[in-house]
Amino acid sequence: MKESLLDVVCCPLDKHDLELDVEDRTDEEILEGTLTCSDCGEVYPIEDGIPNLLPPDMREESD
Amino acid sequence: MTDLAERRGAETTVYQPAEDSGLLAEAALEEATGRVLEVGTGSGWVAKRVDEEAGEVDEVVASDVNPHACRQARERGVEVVRGDLLDPFRAGAFDAVLFNPPYLPTDPENEWDDWMETALSGGETGRELIEPFLDDVERVLAPEGIVLLLVSSLAGYEEIRGRAADAGFDDEVVREESFPFETLSILRLSRRSPSSSGDY
Hints:
The complex is a heterodimer. By secondary structure, chain A is mainly beta. Chain A contains one helix and four strands. Chain A has one helix spanning 56-61, and strands spanning 18-25, 30-37, 43-47, 50-51. Chain A has a four-stranded antiparallel beta sheet with strand order 1-2-3-4, with no helix packed on it. In chain A, a hairpin with a 4-residue loop joins β1 and β2. Chain A is globular. Chain B is an alpha/beta fold. Chain B has a single domain, classed as Rossmann fold, CATH 3.40.50.150. Chain B contains seven helices and seven strands, in the order ααβαβαββααβαββ. In chain B, strands 3-2-1-4-5-7-6 form a seven-stranded mixed beta sheet, sandwiched between helices. In chain B, α2 runs parallel beside α3 (45-53) and α6 (130-140) runs parallel beside α7 (157-166). The longest helix of chain B is centred in the N-terminal third of the chain and has 13 residues, at 19-31. The chains are: A mainly beta, B alpha/beta. Chain A binds chain B through residues 1-2, 4-5, 7-12, 15, 48-55, 58, 62-63, and chain B through 35, 37, 59, 61, 65, 67, 70-71, 74, 79-84, 87-91, 93-94.
């Protein structure tokens, strides 16, 4: 994901802002890291460049 | 084209571009501007075409609930988010939202329970994903934002128009194509202006 994606995404549970933590990135985009809700504190993973913003109960069941 | 088994074909994880995808892409190339979201992007084919070919589009973001679809779309070069319908998107963020929904009416006792079913089945009515989408999409639209929704006659054209009207939209058909068992339309939804008739 590009950093500019933060302009359009939010926490799926409460619609608050997400804070980005980067573990691995290229010049253009973030490959690995997390997005954390600034309000409820829920942590959403970024894996292989794809942020997983499913709510936690859907994240578990579906691969 | 009415049968889930026929539509699935050999593919079991990600819906591949078909007539409905082409119709949605054509409509989007004419109607979409600014920042665009494609919900349920599948292989990412529509999102990619719009990103590359639409003259007035600045940026395309796509989403899907299916991790395999997310990976295919990303490999195609689409900026993708894994998420459920419109849940992970901010209020007022998009000038256009595109959706080719799962719409085939499906007997609950005859479901496959795999990702291709997620891509095709609209539940018993065909509208189980369309209705929550219509109820929430106004939230993510910019002030002049529009929705381009693919509607199949199989999922109940008038019921879908009614639900869109309840959500505060005017609709207009911008593309239509008939097949032996269904008619596909692209509805362009825009916020009802206060001057137009009805509830005011």
